[in-house]
Records
---
Amino acid sequence: MLIKIFGAAVQGIDAILVTVEIAVDRGISYTIVGLPDTAVKESHERVMTALQNSGFDVPRRRVVINMSPADVKKEGAAYDLPIAVGMLAATEKITEGATDRFVIMGELSLDGSVLPIRGALPMAIMARELGMKGIIVPKANVTEAAVVNNLDVFGVNSLAEVADFLNGKITIEPTRINTREEFARAENAFDFDFSEVKGQENVKRAFEVACAGGHNILLVGPPGSGKSMMAKRLPSILPPLTLAEALETTKIHSVAGRLRQGSMLMTQRPFRAPHHTISPVALVGGGANPMPGEISLAHNGVLFLDEFPEFPRSVLEVLRQPLEDRHITVSRAKYTIDYPASVMVVASMNPCPCGYHNHPTKECTCSPFQVQRYLSKISGPLLDRIDLQVEILPVAFDEISSRTAGESSAAIRQRVVAARNIQLQRFADEKSVYCNAQMNSRLLNRYALPDRYGLARLRDAIERLNMSARAYDRILRVARTIADLDQSENILQHHIAEAISYRNLDRSNWIE
């Protein structure tokens, strides 16, 4: 008897339909075809033992399993459940036609229980797009898949429960989630708040500007000055995720298996802080079984690179293309996959090897050559993609001991959202441009030209401070954002002056 069960395979951050065909005939053998990996081939022992321990007779017959399309590699143990259900249907233990129009995925334990899988969300999205009746997934993945509206999502705990449900012996209510209500309830809940930060008003302002325009930012300061502490609070002032952004971000984390059990739609922008020993593949994605890297896991959020010069040069250089294109293409001999990578990079570093260059009270033990060599670990092309370079100094004791709370993240976020709304209206007719940081030269000439006083101030700064030519466009982008925060249509002289103050590393006298 021939039975067809519908499953799914994840490619990139999307899923495609996989038809699992099970034929049971005379003889004794077990064959799987359709480009299965080792985990799928090993399903024989798991499926047979799970069937036996769930109270079903193991078919002592010839079993042929074909997974279509045959040119797509089938990976992982998530095909255990559709194979087991197909064998039960082929041996008439499940009513004929009961599995029609269901997508079924899950890993089986030897006792017949159903274990969590990766990629339940893109599988559910695929099932809805294809007009399937519903999707059956492990109970641990049901809330993740149920964020997809207009689809019946059934969570199961065991193989026996699936068989009873398909035979009509028990009723399983589909899981329903009010996505918008859950999203609105949790979008403003943050563990960290800028009101807890004492002093550092200039750095807070730089963060506000960076978030308002989507600019990358580099913090340069001695140990203990608060670089990491403030970076962790950045998601609290970024604009809230839209539902579309939340869905796309959740898909990436679902495919990577990074969602906690019982989690639903991600409501806060991700904050990823990889250690400087990370490999290039771990940062951008790929591998034998392709997975999103840290830069894609930070999509629509923050990628924090602490101890920036300590990252290997090979790792930092792979950032250049995704920071420009806002997606990463992973090409290997057998596959090519696109992962989204629209991130805000926040980097921090010491100003020199000893950490105390330009410190107000501690003496630096490094020579100018050592300082220059330390800074040169970051290449010019990569530094060119960082709009704000801010020097941060230690907080004075009087500010540390002050009991007065600083400005809250909610107040800062309100200004950031207002500035972003201006940019969304400005770039409404531009494809793939949502914020000032994405402006090219054509858009700069249209929207970011200062008045003659501002232009004179910019010319004077570049000539007097010996700034590099690449600083010109960056200053104009940042000045446009500062003007948006002021609700100003024109870029004025003081907007240019503030933008110039955020280009510390472009000054030739910084290391003297």
---
Amino acid sequence: MLERPDVAQRPSPQVWSPLEYACHVRDMVRLLGVRVEAMRDAEHPTFADWDGDAKALELGYWQADPAQTWTEMQESAAYATAALRSVPAADLDRDGQRSDGVVFTVASLSQYIGHEMEHHLHDVGA
């Protein structure tokens, strides 16, 4: 998908381009890996809210280099995978909470990581 010539083209003004979705997945997967590590290392950590739209504007997702984004997506996935593998099976129920009160466990965050990648592949028609 990132090799398409129109990768930065939005299908409509309110829908992200495949490039923007790729940047979002890159950043979200890395963030979730960081949260897994926090739950591994601390009892009931609280996480700040994360605004994907604000991050897109801050980092200029629409201007990203597709090849670099692909490399960074692979690095984020490897980071999150390593974070998940570092948690002993007996600790998969360790939890953390977003500031809005939503509670996640290591196990549910692992499912969310997979969901993020699959869901956004569907968004871009892959």
---
Amino acid sequence: MKTTETKGTIRTAPKERLLSLDTLRGFDMAMLLGGGAIIIALTELTGWNWMEALATQQHHVEWEGFRFYDLIFPLFMFISGVAIPYAINSKIEKGVAKSRLLKKIFIRLLALIALGILYNGATQRGFTNFRYVSVLSQIGFGYFFAALICLYSRSIRGCVFWLLGIMGGVAILQLFVPVPGHGAGTFESATTINAWLDQRLIPGRLHGKVFDPEGVLCIVSAITITLMGALSGYLLRRPGKPSSKKALYIALAGVGAIVIAQLLSPYYPIIKKMWTVTYVLKAAGVSALMLALFYYVIDVKGSKSWTLFFRVFGMNSITIYMGSRIIDFGDISRFFLNWTSVHINEQWGALFLAIGVVVIEWALLYFLYKKKIFLRV
């Protein structure tokens, strides 16, 4: 395999990868960075009633509830968890020292925190009224602690105990610990235990003004979805079981998590901005179903010819996430395709512009893919 000599975190992809995982990660990133906009533009163009429901799913819920767009972030964390047994446990089996692996995942955490600070605009505005927490820092903390648990737990059972303990701790805090002046179990944004902790522990600006959706308790809760992904990864790596049964077990676990979340939701609401345990269970359940589907179709049945488009996104996910913050892909699309709005109509123009963004992003990533340049953090 051709290699590219680079420094830091840029290196070539390994020869063996779980193809379905790269594809699912790529699907996730493609929907975040333009796929949803295409669906919305197509809905406005056609006026088809059946597409209205799809278009609605491309927006976050205001507070309580769950839509597809509320899945994108936790799905990425779930996928990062699935990769833990492949990235860490496989090296332990080869005799790599745990201290060396700990150093590696700690550096990864620091890199993601730094990239999150950069993403939030430190180079634009400095640190005046700055938001320190970010999506990337939450991914970093979630992966770090989930990997740490997997690294030092003596068994999968130990990982499960940690998972249940963290989920139980978050649930107790959100349901039963009283917030001064407001009482316990409150789920209004300004009066939650999340908001109370964020206001006291996070410096700078909070994204939600009185709370942060990537705040202290959200980070703790998000560790659990990464751990659930890791448990799925353990199952996928387990020898001796038929691959089709592995997909079935993951799918059944996903259904079970969704059912539990829905049964508890009247008493413990599904709220993404709080990362309530019910939200995590539902997001993990849907993520598990998607993993089972992609794994069965791609790795079990061998249907791989259609995966290239998404793999190109998935194998450079951090690159395109940061790139979308630095490069105005929408402006580039308008430069080439704005004539469609002028000479056809605005609705057709909006669709072409949305498609143009995805095509330009993909073309950049495909160039890096062909050069075997991948940003690994």
